[in-house]
Amino acid sequence: MTAKVNRQWRLVARPLANFKDSDFAWREDSVPTVGAGQVLVRNLYLSLDPTNRIWATEADSYLPPVALGEVMRGGGVGVVEESQHPNFPVGTNVSGMIGWQDYLLSDGAGLSPLPHLPGVPLTAFLGLFSHIGMTAYFGLLDVGKPQAGETLVVSGAAGATGSLVGQIGKIKGCRVVGIAGSDDKCRWLVDELGFDAAINYKTEPLRESLQKHCPKGIDVYFENVGGEILDAVLTLINVKARIALCGLISQYNATAPVPGPYNFANLIARRARIEGFLVLDYMPRAQECFAALGKWLMAGKLKYRVDEVAGLENAPTAINKLFTGANSGKLVVKIA
Amino acid sequence: MTAKVNRQWRLVARPLANFKDSDFAWREDSVPTVGAGQVLVRNLYLSLDPTNRIWATEADSYLPPVALGEVMRGGGVGVVEESQHPNFPVGTNVSGMIGWQDYLLSDGAGLSPLPHLPGVPLTAFLGLFSHIGMTAYFGLLDVGKPQAGETLVVSGAAGATGSLVGQIGKIKGCRVVGIAGSDDKCRWLVDELGFDAAINYKTEPLRESLQKHCPKGIDVYFENVGGEILDAVLTLINVKARIALCGLISQYNATAPVPGPYNFANLIARRARIEGFLVLDYMPRAQECFAALGKWLMAGKLKYRVDEVAGLENAPTAINKLFTGANSGKLVVKIA
How many helices (H) and strands (E) does chain B have? Predict the structure, then answer.
């Protein structure tokens, strides 16, 4: 028995647009007792991702919705504090679906022990060396299939995934143009990450800017956003263009059905492809991805930025930064 | 010099919705004189296709628009009547872009001599052994990539292309469900062509019927139509589904921008692909296609239907049958 408290955010209402504080209930539960074959993980960092919004929706998507009354689902990293499981000794750092809470009781399924990499902070296992890095790596290379000399456009380019996608595109020899929502973000993309150009979609005429920065048209588009941005890109795609459909964050908070792109028919004229993907399908190939990303990181070819919010209590407000564009880089919550 | 007349339909206005007679002007021109290296083709059958509507639009698509005042562009078959070209002796049957007219003067570029196949009428070279057969063959096999045991859905299933797609799907071992616009068409698909089921989209609840006839979901969708049909299909696609985007006939006559599918985001949850294609890209592989189709035709595995309209003068009204769904099978005009 332990007297520690397990603070939790439980989902109690389905959000209609942005998350509201009242969609969650704060609960202080007792910390569960560890049984045979179980581990108790003290959660350290919680990952906030656009897909959390999908999980809070009634509709069954690629994962079942979080049931009302349950702890909100979320990925993260933590440290094993008590263990009756041979694979997870006390002190092991792990990643997995930790939930929006201080402690996770687990039988080890879905938990991954984290390697100790010198100079690499724990939060990197929520970004570069996580589903984020894998999403960028496999989405771009397996679905987008960029070739050296081609033009790659990335939306949500200053986000955790988008910023990696653009850098991998540069490593692969592409001309890379990012779309982001502030001048600061655009400067970061060009000056620090080496993008060839960046477009502030809030202040620049989107299609004209794309046309200017993509004089040879668009061969690969990595899509995180949807809506008007996708439509503008569709007018400029080259023959045999590939659109890797990673996310459609512009519509996750929509309260009415959102139409697909108006320039949809251009897929025919350009013999182009839109393909959705989920990082879940690539889990068996994680090591291939992390080996490549690690090599590039050590060679100074990859940079990443973590946007760290302090305190589990702030998770419900922090997550909306993803939808207002207020974050830059990987959004995480430092739990305690 | 010849005293024969070359009757022509020239495009003189851009259609707003369906073609109107006033979009065309009837002109009786003299028949051009054949020069060195040229042939005069007497046109026999004109092919009417949904894509004709795209060519009449101002916008540059995969081919430049037909200029106002020019003879309307159209494929067809004819016979060489005069020749100063060694490859096209008088009497040779040819296919190509003959235009909406009695006679074509050509230097031979884009004209293909037709083989003499016993028992195969000339109109088959506007259907099975033409761009239509190639569209069905390569669109289904190269883009849709059906596997035996998978479920294939075809829209515009009683059309020239769709009816071949479904039959090729059966040859490849798929469960095949067609969507068409009348009970007669649906009976033809099931009773004569061997489709497993057919849905009359005008009288049946589309999604429910698809669900009933596709109990294992939809793996491949061959899209000729767009709009609500595509949206219904998108709710039922399986993981890794392939959508071969051949046409979007429901929107060619639209007078306002048409949105893409509302269930677009399902491409992500299902890791599915939509890919546009054009038969033009497959011209170098025509022989591979026609050899396969010819073999299946001889084996009694392929049937096709020709909807023949008499008289070039009726072309402007006949073409709208494609958009009202009044035709069944390949729509052609017997010119003289």
Answer: 10, 15
Calculate the dihedral angle through the C-alpha atoms of A89, A92, A97, A100, rounding to the nearest 10 degrees: 110
Structure tokens at A239: 């023959």
Mean pLDDT of chain A: 94
Tokens of A189: 């993309």
User: By a Cβ cutoff of 8 Å, what residues of chain B touch chain A?
Assistant: 61-62, 226, 245-248, 251, 257-278, 281
pLDDT of residue B19: 94
Q: Which residues of A touch B (CB under 8 A)?
A: 61-62, 226, 245-248, 251, 257-278, 281
Question: Which CATH architecture does the domain made up of A5-127+304-334 adopt?
Answer: Alpha-Beta Complex (3.90)
Instruction: Write down the CATH superfamily of domain B5-126+305-334.
Output: Medium-chain alcohol dehydrogenases, catalytic domain (3.90.180.10)
Residue that is written with structure tokens 């073999």 in the block:
B295
Helix, strand, coil share (%) of chain B residues, nearest 5: 30, 25, 40
Q: Is residue B258's pLDDT more than 90? A: no
Cα separation, B182 vs B287, whole angstroms = 34
CA closest to A250 among chain B residues: B265
Min Cα distance B305 → chain A (Å) is: 26
DSSP string, B153-170: EEESTTBHHHHHHHHHHH
Cα B108 from Cα B298, distance rounded (Å): 31
Which residue of A267, A270, A278, A283 to mutate against B (max B Cβ within 10 Å)? Answer: A267
How does residue A25 score in pLDDT terms, banded at 50, 70 and 90? Answer: very high
Report the DSSP beta bridge partners of residue A274: A243, B274
Q: Do A248 and B262 touch (CB under 8 A)?
A: no
Closest partner CB to B277 (pick from A245, A260, A271): A271
Task: Name the strand (E) or helix (H) holding A293.
Answer: helix A286-298
pLDDT digit string, tens, across residues B164-193: 999 999 999 999 999 999 999 999 999 999
Closest-CA distance, B60 to chain A, in angstroms, reads 9
Of B248 and B174, the structure prediction assigns the larger pLDDT to B174
Q: In the predicted model, what is the mean pLDDT of chain B?
A: 94
Tell me the pTM.
Answer: 0.88
Q: Which of B267, B278, B283 has the highest number of chain A CBs within 10 A, making it the mutation to test binding with A?
A: B267
For B251, nearest residue in chain A (alpha carbons)? A265
CB-based contacts of B78: which residues, under 8 Å, 6+ apart? B41, B42, B43, B44, B45, B93, B94, B95, B98, B104
Tokens 């767009």 belong to: B226
**pLDDT tens digit sequence for B85-137:** 999 999 999 999 999 999 999 999 989 999 888 888 999 999 999 999 999 99
Q: Which chain B positions have a beta carbon within 8 Å of A273's beta carbon? A: 273-276
Between B69 and B328, residue with greater pLDDT = B69
Q: Do A265 and B257 touch (CB under 8 A)?
A: no
**Residue of chain B minimizing CA distance to A275:** B273
**pLDDT of residue A3 exceeding 80:** no
Q: How far apart are the first and last CA of chain B?
A: 21
CB contact under 8 A, B268 and A278: yes
In a mutational test of the B interface, the residue from A268, A277, A281 whose CB has the highest number of chain B CBs within 10 Å is A268
User: What's domain B131-280's architecture?
Assistant: 3-Layer(aba) Sandwich (3.40)
Confidence of residue B249 (pLDDT cuts 50, 70, 90): confident
Q: Which residues of B touch A277 (CB under 8 A)?
A: 268, 271
Q: Where are the domains of chain B?
A: 5-126+305-334, 131-280
